[in-house]
Amino acid sequence: MTAGLLVRYGRPGYVGRFRTTADLERGARVVVRGPRGLELGTVLCAPADRFTGVEEDGELVRAATAADDAAADCADALSRDLLDAADALAAGLPVAFPDAEVALDSASAVLHALPWAVCDLDPILTALSDRFSLPVRLLDLSQTPVSADPPDPTTATCGKPDCGSGGGCSSCGTGGGCSTGSCSRGAVKSAAELTAYFADLRGKMEAAARTPLH
To answer: Reduced to 3 states, what is the DSSP secondary structure of residue 20?
Structure first.
């Protein structure tokens, strides 16, 4: 028997320690009740001795069942409706909503937001909470550290041949990723560019979620 297990949960891939007396193997799908509510997770391993004294994130409720899978499908459908409503409410504001997560019991939701300028999102959260009859909280992705774009290749290079001539930044070793396949111009993305990017990302995530795992 074990006093707790490490579980990965949530779209961002959080890892937490959840108390349980169940003996579950690595990779087992489970239902956990944590700081964000009830949600599905995957067992990673039993906590080692070095985690003794580390605060628990919640309770491992049970091994996931077919009913939990059905509830997750309903929660995903609700999250898509919530995203559509959030996009409509935020028209004209400097913010994109790349994702949303609804708890397994549909009792709460987390809206992922990426603002590129100061804006008040409280009215949107209030409106969404009222419309969907559940509390909606915000996950501000702009607070997550990110790598800065590389210098403008038209004005600065790393000194290597052909740097900035159209190859990816990883090929010239200047650091930083290139989402477009060529070196960034170093400018802040426009509202339209960010919205298009996250719409494409959301579509890819939904497509991946529909692909069966073998």
So the answer is: coil
Q: Which residues contact 35 (CB under 8 A, 6 or more apart)?
A: 57, 58
Other Cβ atoms closer than 10 A to 83: 20
Distances (CA, A) of 153 to 8, 109, 158, 172, 175: 40, 42, 9, 11, 13
* Burial class of residue 68 in the structure, from the number of CB atoms within 10 Å of its CB (0-12 exposed, 13-18 middle, 19+ buried): buried
User: pLDDT digits over 128-141, tens only?
Assistant: 999 999 999 999 88
Q: Whole-angstrom distance between the N-terminal and C-terminal Cα of the chain?
A: 30
What are φ and ψ of residue 182, in 5° steps? -145, 165
User: How much of the chain, in percent, has pLDDT values that exceed 70?
Assistant: 62
- The amino acid at 112: H
Rg (CA), the chain: 21
What's the predicted TM-score (pTM) here?
Answer: 0.63
Distance of alpha carbon 82 from the chain centroid: 15
Which residue segments constitute the domains of the chain, with CATH numbers given? 4-64 (no CATH), 69-144+195-210 (3.30.300), 150-186 (no CATH)
